[in-house]
Specification:
By secondary structure, the protein is α+β, with helices and mostly antiparallel strands. It has 2 domains: 188 residues, no CATH class; 110 residues, no CATH class. It contains 8 helices and 13 strands. Strands 1, 4, 5, 6, 7, 8 and 9 form a 7-stranded mixed beta sheet that branches. The chain has a two-stranded antiparallel sheet with strand order 2-3. A two-stranded antiparallel sheet has the order 10-11.
Length: 306
């Protein structure tokens, strides 16, 4: 039997090495990792997969606690096998495997919860592609609902249980979930749909690309769906948000008249003025293309600002 102190030291080295590798892997702005890379991760000279080939919970044989959790990508219009949703406190939930709290994978998660061990959450953004969110912690075991509550940062480990605190904490949890999970997932899905290049100028540097909303985030229908997104470089994203650029329902770009009449340097000329009249490059998959009704709504906003 492995000494518990030795196992804890080994577990800490594994988690540190895996998260350090993910930081380096995602440092260039490409925040998604393919399953094959995760299966071929090496630790201390040996292959040490970060995900399980067939299950969502990874518990290596050399460890008693889980190392990672995984949410499978679900294509639009299909029902997810597990619903990882926020609870009344705003914290996300991760469902048990199956219906038995004593099942071995669920026990491995419970040990991680009891020891307050950091985990990696691999969130599916396309078939075989995952956005790594780390470190995360399990902060509550809810066997009646067959789930664990997940904290996305260390502050949520210290949540108070007073009524006044719960209101502020829920808002904080919702904002953090949006920043650390929903927005990165939206960005990853949009950039993959557009082959990681700007839909206007074809710039292919991932670190300089954004996922722009067509219907704004504040709009009631401004959902984080690929059909409500555009992959744009940072200058064209800013120009689109400020209504310097508009997009017609036939996907042709228009530049505001006063911008066309300006006389400035090469960035204005090549970066903005020459976009006038070009056709937006849209995804090959029809369901990922910009929603025409959303495009028309934003175009009318652009026209009113001209």
């Amino acid at each position: 039997m492995i000494d518990s102190f030795m196992e804890d030291a080994f577990s800490a080295r594994v988690r540190t090495a895996a998260m350090d590798w993910l930081k380096r892997r995602c440092a260039d702005g490409d925040f998604v990792v393919h399953r094959n890379e995760l299966l071929e991760f090496h630790f201390e000279g040996k292959r040490f997969p970060l995900v399980d080939p067939n299950r969502g919970i990874r518990k290596p044989k050399s460890m008693t606690a889980a190392l990672s959790i995984l949410t499978t990508y679900t294509a639009p219009g299909r029902r997810a096998p597990y619903e990882d949703r926020p609870g009344p406190d705003g914290l996300l939930r991760y469902k048990y495997r199956g219906f038995d709290p004593r099942q071995s994978d669920n026990v491995a998660l419970r040990i991680a919860y009891e020891r307050k061990l950091p985990l990696i959450w691999f969130y599916g953004v396309a078939e075989g592609w995952y956005l790594p969110c780390f470190p995360v912690w399990l902060v509550a075991d809810e066997p009646e609902q067959l789930q664990f509550a997940v904290a996305l940062d260390e502050a949520q480990l210290l949540m108070s249980d007073t009524v006044e605190a719960r209101v502020g904490q829920r808002r904080y949890a919702e904002r953090l979930t949006r920043q650390r999970l929903h927005q990165p997932v939206f960005r990853a899905q949009v950039l993959r749909a557009y082959d990681e290049s700007c839909a206007m100028c074809n710039l292919r540097h991932a670190s300089l690309l954004d996922a722009a909303h067509i219907l704004r985030d504040s709009h009631p229908e401004g959902i984080p769906a690929v059909s409500n997104g555009l992959a744009l470089c940072k200058i064209h994203h800013a120009a689109y948000d400020k209504n310097i650029l508009g997009i017609r329902s036939d996907y042709v770009v228009e530049v505001r008249r006063d911008i066309l009449e300006e006389n400035d340097g090469p960035m204005l000329r090549h970066g903005l003025q020459e976009m006038n009249g070009i056709s937006l490059r849209v995804p090959k998959v029809r369901r990922d293309r910009p929603d025409v009704a959303a495009i028309e709504h934003r175009y009318e906003e652009f026209r009113r600002s001209a």
